[in-house]
Write a structure and sequence with these properties.
Blueprint: H1 2-29, H2 32-58, H3 73-101, H4 109-137, H5 140-169, H6 174-201, H7 208-221, E1 227-236, E2 239-248, H8 254-272, E3 275-283, E4 292-293
Parallel strand pairs: 2-3
Antiparallel strand pairs: 1-2, 1-4
Subcellular location: Cell membrane
Membrane topology: Multi-pass membrane protein
InterPro entries: Cation_efflux, Cation_efflux_CTD, Cation_efflux_CTD_sf, Cation_efflux_TM, Cation_efflux_TMD_sf, CDF_Transporter
């Protein structure tokens, strides 16, 4: 997890740079839409720091109090990030309401737009990098940060368009309107992020497609066994936990049954990556005639 921690530290540096650029754009123009964009970047900084702490904590080895490790710590970071996004949305809505009642034309719009565009481009590039590395490292914290930055990029593009239109047309109401639209968008983004992270904390099963692949691999690599039943799965950070009961002929030796379990475990780990596989071997009298039939 050293790699993930290094990437998370990079996220903190990028978030600080983007915040500085967006704050400068708002200070130059006085645009409430650009203020909304800058407020979201404050959340980005806090979320990036939380992700870094969570990733480092999740990398701690299992101990007596946490025999399954600390991988779920990353979900807490993602939940916190979702909560911070919602707080930012409320602050933006408050600012948009004030600007709607007392609109003002942005100043130095061209310079502010150039600076804000640079910040948006930086966010877009880092978001794409985080998505790629977050998937390869199976890090909920990095993927949550990537999703948040992507949402930020989308709303930032809308803000840039709105500020440009205000400068070109003089329609001052577009500025607070775009700020409000930005707030609503990131509000939904925050809720979706919290929902996905809470699912991990509540030990939701793996997605249906992954579950189907797990069942297929058990059926294909457990030759000599009769069936597998009571298959259960869950995700915890970058780890996938899989457990099931494997029914074998009553006359089969322990060595033979263990060899089957080894084959299945190797196949599953090759498919799903970092995982914890638990197989309970049972004699044929325990067969339930349901679940996974061995090919």
């Amino acid at each position: 997890m050293k790699t993930a921690a290094t990437i998370a530290a990079g996220s903190v540096a990028i978030a600080l740079a983007v915040l500085a650029l967006k704050a400068a754009a708002w200070w130059l123009t006085g645009s409430v839409a650009l203020l909304a964009d800058a407020l979201e970047s404050i959340v980005n900084v806090a979320a990036a720091v939380a992700a870094l702490i969570a990733i480092r904590f999740s990398a701690l080895p299992a101990d007596a109090n946490h025999p399954y490790g600390h991988a779920k710590a990353e979900y807490f970071s993602a939940v916190l990030e979702g909560a911070l996004i919602i707080v930012a949305a409320i602050l933006i809505l408050y600012s948009a309401y004030g600007a709607w009642n007392a609109p003002r034309a942005p100043e130095a719009a061209a310079t502010g737009l150039v600076i804000a565009t640079l910040a948006t481009g930086l966010n877009a590039g880092w978001s794409a990098f985080l998505f790629r590395r977050g998937r390869s490292l199976r890090s909920p914290a990095l993927l949550a940060d990537a999703q948040h930055l992507l949402s930020d990029v989308i709303t930032s593009v809308g803000v840039l368009v709105a500020v440009a239109l205000v400068a070109l047309t003089g329609q001052l109401w577009l500025d607070p309107l775009m700020a409000a639209v930005t707030a609503v968008n990131i509000l939904f983004s925050g809720w979706r992020l919290m929902r996905e992270s809470l699912g991990g904390l509540m030990d939701e099963a793996v997605p249906g497609e992954m579950l189907a692949r797990i069942r297929r691999l058990v059926a294909e690599h457990a030759a000599g066994a009769l069936e597998a039943h009571d298959l259960r799965t869950r995700n915890a950070g970058r780890f996938t936990f899989v457990e099931f009961h494997l029914v074998v002929p009553g006359a089969m030796t322990v060595d033979e049954a263990h060899a089957i379990c080894d084959r299945v475990e190797v196949a599953l780990k090759a498919e799903i990556g970092e995982s914890v596989i638990t197989i309970h071997v049972e004699p044929e009298g325990k067969a339930k005639h349901q679940g996974v039939l061995v090919l």
